[in-house]
Amino acid sequence: MRPVYFEDEALKLIDQTLLPTREVIRSYTDYRDVCDAIVTMVVRGAPAIGVTAGYAVALAAREFAGRPDFAERMQQACDDLRGTRPTAVNLFWAVDRQEACLKAALTAGQDAYVALRAEADAICAEDIAMCRAMGRAGAALLHLGDTVLTHCNAGALATADYGTALGVIRAACEAGKQISVYADETRPLLQGARLTAYELHKDGIPVTLITDNMAGWMMRQGKIDAVIVGADRITRNGDVANKIGTYSVSVLARENGIPFYVAAPTSTIDFEMMTGDDIVIEEREPNEVGHFAGVQTAPEGIRFENSAFDVTPHQNVSAIITEKGVLYPPYIQHIPKLKNEG
C-alpha cells in the first residue's frame, strides 16, 4: 500500500480523509496544492509528509524553471511547506535536504528539477527501506501469540510503504509469530478506526477496535502484551511527540508493567532538540472536536482544546526501534551516536 508516489509527472496521494469507505487517488502538479493536502491531512504521518514535501519541492522547481526570480520563488515554496504542520520533524528534514540538493545542482550547473526529482525518489526509496529494516529489528521484541496495542496510525499509510509501528507488527507476522492487535480509535479524527484497522484487516492481521478510554482496562485484564506506536519527533534525550493520547497510553503501560515501544526512522529524530519541552505542538480546528463527519456532537458556544500531539517522556519508553537497530535507555547516550553514524 503506497499512499504517496510519483507517476505520469504528478505526485499521487491516497486521500486519507475518505478512508475506509472510499479509496481515492488524488493527483498534484502544483506545490501549493500539496501544501493544502498536508494541512487538511489528505496525507498524514511524519514519514509520509516528509516524502510528500520532497516531491513538492521538485514540483516547485519545475514550475519556476527559467524565471529570473527562481531563487526567491524556491525559497518561498520551501517556507510554505515548512509552514504547513509544525510538529513532525520529517517535513523539515526533507525540505532541508532538498534545499541542499538544489544548491548543489545550481553550483554544478545541473537541471534543478531533474536533481530534485531524483532526490525525492531517493527519499521515498530510503523511507521504504528504513521501514523494512525497522520491522526486522522490532519483530525480535515480540513473541509468539502476543497481542499488541497501537495508537493512531503508524502503518503504510503514514509512510511511503510498509509502516513504522505496523511495520514491526507486519514483520513479526511474516516471521510466523501470529500477532494480533488492539487498535485505539484515536479521537478526534479516528485514525486508528479508519486507517489502522483498515490496513490490518486488509492484510489479514487480526485486529480489534477499542475506544481510547478502554486501553487501561484491557491492560488491567492482561489482554495486552506490548504497546507499539510511531512518532512525529524524537528529541536527543528520548522524549517522543506522537498523536494526542500517546502519553496517556504510556502511563497506563508503565502502571501495568507492559513494554512501551516507539518505532521511527532516524529522520524522525531531532538531533538538535534536547527535550520534549521544546517541541511545538500543533493546535487544530475546534470543529474537529465539536463535530464529526459534519454532524454537531457538542453544544454551541462552549470552548474546545484540540492539541494534535502530546509528548511522552523518555522514562516511559522501553525501547526505540530504528532502521539502525533497537535503542534502550539511557537514550541521551545512544541517540546522538546515530547522527555520527550518518
TrEMBL record:
Signal peptide start and end residues: none
Single GO MF annotation: S-methyl-5-thioribose-1-phosphate isomerase activity
EC number: 5.3.1.23
Keywords: Amino-acid biosynthesis, Isomerase, Methionine biosynthesis
Binding residues annotated for substrate, in chain numbering: R44, G45, A46, R85, Q191, N242, K243
Pathways per UniProt: Amino-acid biosynthesis; L-methionine biosynthesis via salvage pathway; L-methionine from S-methyl-5-thio-alpha-D-ribose 1-phosphate: step 1/6
The name this protein goes by in its record: Methylthioribose-1-phosphate isomerase
